[in-house]
Amino acid sequence: MNWLRMMGCLVGVIVSASTLAVEQKISTMDVGPAGIIITHMEGKIALQDGAAPTTDIKLTITNSSEKNFTGTIGFRGGDSQPITLTRGNTATIAVAPDVQYRGERGHIQKAAIDLTILMDGDLPQNAVESVNVAVSLPEGGSPLMKATPPLIENEGAVPSYILFSRGQYTSPLTMLYTMAPVNVRIHKTLTPNPIKEGPVTVSLTLTNVGKETAKGLIIKDSLDPRDFSGEGEGFTLYQGEVNDQRLLWEHTLESLGAGEKTTISYEVIANGAVHDVALDAASVIVDQELAGISNKVWLHK
């Protein structure tokens, strides 16, 4: 399998065109019935090695209106459940979200779970009062490579996570994880930030949170050549279609032991002030497979 191609499928496009169309539709929807409040969303999501995750999620709904309510509730793309709730009462109902999975056992895998709640096909009038959903890794798995939105990590011999929020609308949860023996966390920073015309240092801190030594790590990063320029070893100017130009930077690290951390930096020149933009994530490739992906850096004023 071409793992570089798969990497592009997994992380290059987090939101597909069809999903964007659904998001646009959601943004113009009417809201659900007044006074029907989702007080809690709780449950479990268990990631699997080589299969779609399993879910066990319950919603607690309170009817604070002056009328009885009969309708449906569920997650976007999943099965809706009928519910009848007399005024002043509360009920808890199990609902199954839509789950998308891509990957191969023993390698990098992606799970997308749409937790967008719909009532009678519309968004609820009020945000969910509290969300507490536990996320577990497959047995033998290393820490998550990436999660959107971010999860709270419980450190331990076997990492676990919690999707937690208060007073927020729920949204799709996308997780990238690997069962390969190498898993590299990358933290990307730019100095200075805010960016003004002149030299800028890009720093990538790599930590091998996997179980084995990573060998022959290929570190890749990219910037917009309209904003930055770079010369010397490691830099390449990519010319694609119209409006598709990238300043690419690449570096090979001989090895990084399990639990080991190192920081690698390179310098570019800012062609002017750069702000109000999120830079691309950096990545690490080991044995032609994605082994790590960084945060996206937001450049502020």
Automatic annotation (TrEMBL):
Taxonomy, superkingdom: Bacteria
Protein name stated in the entry: DUF11 domain-containing protein
Extent of the signal sequence: 1-21
UniProt keyword annotations, A-Z: Signal
